[in-house]
Design brief:
The chain is α/β, with parallel strands linked by helices. The protein has 12 helices and 11 strands. The chain has helices at residues 11-22, 34-41, 50-54, 80-102, 141-151, 177-187, 206-219, 235-245, 256-263, 265-271, 280-284, 294-299; strands at residues 2-6, 26-30, 46-48, 64-67, 110-116, 162-168, 171-172, 192-194, 204-205, 223-227, 252-254. The longest helix is centred in the first third of the chain and has 23 residues, at 80-102. It starts with a strand and ends in a 7-residue tail after the last helix.
């Protein structure tokens, strides 16, 4: 297959590129920084920047498109400028990719686009792909961001392209993402409860994300797919498990008022709230998680290849 990946220099993108290279696939990768792609992957991939895609990206006729482009959610405080950048980076990349594939003489069979489990409304009930989601205007930045991101794919309806909204939970891997930021504080014994610690903590191991994307391509799944591990845990369980894996204490506690003072809206939406989510469609389709439990993921999965 010829696979086109946007955001290929990012945490998940690099893992996918390296995986598909081992599978012998032909890869085109888009990034804002073409030179970084060339340093990472050399001549193994067709490196593109967004201006080249806008010009039609000659000879780029993908069978599959995987859209991961977007500014890092946790990369700095959520000022108004930062939130605008988070939103714009996702929307512009997605809309440009949609426009590109609509103009191709031969359409890709599949378009997989990242989204987030934050699209689900706060609830004490478990959310599945059948849980109703509606425009959450005024009900939280992350919910609106995920909603708008998925809405950007609507122009692909009726084109014959199989569209997948990959609703990602926080992805655990030692090479990047949230876990990389947490390792040093936890190694210093500063891990522990945030707020009550009882808020749901959806998660998934990076190797399972990579394998699941390949599974989705092969299986024919479409629509919303929850990319989250099947084990439901809360934040304090995550903290205790990570501290145990690192052989460190888990005694630190940060009250809600301090988190709100330090991180503002980011604290409210990223740290103090969560949703209970299950990967029903993946499980029903026969996907088997290599790291279904947090103990397995933190003990082995974060340091293992897909």
């Amino acid at each position: 297959m010829h696979i086109l990946i946007s955001g290929g220099s990012g945490f998940i993108g690099q893992a996918l590129v390296n995986y598909f290279l081992t599978q012998g696939q032909q890869l085109s990768v888009i990034s804002r920084n073409k030179e970084k792609l060339q340093l990472l992957f050399g001549a193994q991939v067709n490196s593109l920047d967004w201006s080249e895609l806008a010009l039609g990206a000659n000879h780029c006729q993908p069978d599959v498109v995987i859209n991961l482009a977007g500014e890092n959610i946790a990369g700095g405080l959520w000022t108004q400028a930062k939130k605008q950048k988070l939103h714009t980076s996702r929307m512009m990349a997605t809309l440009q990719l949609v426009d590109f594939v609509k103009k191709l003489p031969s359409k890709p069979q599949c378009f997989i686009s990242a989204s987030g489990v934050t699209i689900y409304p706060p609830s004490t009930e478990i959310c599945t792909e059948d849980t109703e989601v509606t425009n959450p205007a005024g009900q939280g930045f992350l919910r609106q961001l995920a909603w708008d991101w998925e809405q950007a794919l609507l122009p692909l309806q009726g084109t014959g392209i199989r569209v997948v909204n990959l609703r990602l939970a926080p992805v655990l891997g030692a090479s990047g993402g949230m876990l990389k930021q947490l390792l040093w504080p936890y190694k210093l014994g500063l891990g522990g409860r945030l707020g009550t610690g009882q808020q749901p903590f959806p998660w998934v191991a990076l190797p399972d994300v990579v394998r699941a994307v390949d599974f989705i391509i092969q299986s024919g799944l479409s629509g919303a797919v929850n990319m989250v591990a099947p084990e439901l845990v809360d934040q304090i369980t995550f903290a205790k498990t990570l501290a145990s894996v690192l052989h460190r204490p888990c005694i630190f506690a940060m009250p809600e008022w301090l988190l709100r003072k330090l991180f503002g809206q980011m604290a409210e939406e990223l740290l103090l709230n969560g949703v209970k989510v299950m990967p029903v469609r993946l499980l029903q389709a026969g996907f088997e998680f290599k790291y279904p439990t947090l103990a397995q993921a933190l003990g082995r999965g974060t340091f293992s290849p897909p």
